[in-house]
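Here is the promised in-class demo. Please do not try to memorize the tokens; focus on the logic of going from shape to residues.
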């Protein structure tokens, strides 16, 4: 018991969640030949790499908004250029001024520092234009999102004081909130964590993934909702099928409670179970030789989902980060993922919208569809776990308004697939619709 507690404390200490939002004030001259227009921009990227940019010509009331999506630039020989990020403006719209004005298309380029943090480098007309040979911004200023509330004049240069974004940043919700005493006492969070930490082919990713999950959900339960958290961590020499079955059997949530089940390890498709689309978990002791028959030491993640939802909790979130093809296949190795340097706090109303909704919801999502492998990065994190956590942070941040789980999981699925496709690996997280 002491060993389990020590590792859990290490997880929480080492993987304390950071809610990131990178904001820049940018100034640049039009990259179009012969165009001398000077532009100012409000550039905002969230934890999961999604964001927006608002652009206005200097001394003009015209404001254009475009969606942006963080990606590595293309390498000279194909694949990724992990030294450069590209943000292509998409779905441009005029939010203020002459609706018939022409809308310029811009693409923003950022370099990555040795610390894996991004810095503005240049702007081009389109994503197909070559990267600027030298920095062509006239000026760049990093705005700490936690200090955004001190920069009301800057925000009002791009947003009206009646806009939802302005209200999210400066309105009452930014001051936080709390559950009612009765609601707080009657709500618990149960986190069942299963991680194959002794498998040499997966080290150190399962430990890293598990730590990040403990960090994010501990923060939500203890620091935001102030509810009781019960963590059952199954790892090391306790990692086996009977231990998981025992954990599920003793799990007894109430109708107001929250249940999260997370698995990180090997997964596989059982060719004899053709009707099962979701992966079977390899729950064998990875150090034991000879290896026992996997079919005697496995549980299917959908069966785990069915078992948990029958217990009747308010929110059931079942996640697995594992392959869904050949047993013991190594997870594919992809490039590291870019970091961000802005910080913000979780918004209480957004946390409550996701975790305390009065309508019960049951969700199952796994890292890979049938006959696909999950992807990991060296000494960092698995793609699916990373993008799930970053998507959750994004929708809990003050820039969003009353999110739902379809937004969180949809963004996690989109980003995982985007980076997997770019790394020439097929990985599509599979979501079971709630019932």
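The designed amino acids, position by position:
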């Amino acid at each position: 018991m002491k060993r389990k507690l020590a590792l859990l404390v290490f997880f929480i200490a080492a993987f304390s969640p950071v809610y990131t939002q990178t904001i820049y004030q940018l100034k640049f001259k039009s990259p179009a030949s012969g165009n001398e227009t000077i532009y100012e921009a409000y550039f905002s990227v969230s934890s999961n790499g999604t964001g927006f940019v608002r652009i206005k010509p200097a001394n003009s009331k015209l404001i254009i908004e475009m969606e942006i999506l963080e990606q590595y630039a293309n390498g000279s020989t194909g694949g990724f250029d992990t030294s450069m990020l590209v943000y292509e403006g998409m779905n441009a719209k005029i939010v203020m001024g002459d609706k018939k004005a022409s809308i310029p298309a811009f693409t923003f380029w950022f370099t990555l520092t040795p610390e894996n943090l991004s810095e503005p480098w240049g702007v081009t007309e389109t994503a197909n234009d070559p990267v600027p040979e030298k920095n062509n911004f006239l000026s760049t200023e990093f705005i700490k999102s936690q200090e955004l509330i001190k920069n009301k004049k800057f925000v009002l240069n791009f947003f009206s004081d009646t806009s939802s974004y302005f209200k999210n940043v400066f309105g009452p919700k930014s001051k936080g909130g709390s559950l009612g005493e009765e609601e707080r006492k009657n709500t618990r969070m149960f986190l069942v964590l299963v991680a194959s930490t002794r498998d040499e082919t997966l080290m150190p990713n399962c430990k890293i993934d598990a730590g990040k999950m403990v960090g994010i959900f501990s923060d939500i339960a203890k620091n935001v909702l102030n509810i009781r958290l019960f963590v059952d961590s199954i790892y090391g020499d306790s990692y086996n099928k009977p231990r998981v079955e025992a954990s599920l059997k003793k799990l007894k949530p109430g109708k107001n409670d929250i249940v999260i089940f997370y698995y990180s390890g090997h997964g596989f498709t059982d060719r004899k179970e053709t009707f099962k689309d979701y992966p079977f978990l390899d729950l064998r002791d990875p150090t034991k030789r000879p290896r026992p028959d996997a079919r005697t030491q496995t549980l299917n993640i959908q069966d785990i989902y069915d078992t948990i939802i029958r217990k009747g909790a308010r929110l059931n979130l079942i996640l697995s980060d594992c392959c869904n093809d050949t047993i013991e296949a190594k997870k594919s190795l992809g490039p590291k993922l870019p970091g961000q340097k802005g910080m913000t706090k979780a918004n209480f109303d957004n946390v409550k919208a996701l975790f305390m909704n009065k309508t019960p919801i049951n969700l199952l999502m796994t890292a890979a569809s049938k006959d696909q492998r999950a992807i990991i990065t060296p000494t960092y994190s698995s793609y699916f776990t990373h993008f799930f956590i970053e998507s959750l942070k994004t929708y809990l941040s003050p820039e969003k308004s009353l999110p739902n789980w379809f937004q969180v999981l949809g963004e996690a699925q989109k980003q995982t697939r985007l980076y997997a496709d770019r790394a020439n690996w097929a990985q599509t997280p599979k979501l079971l619709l709630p019932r």
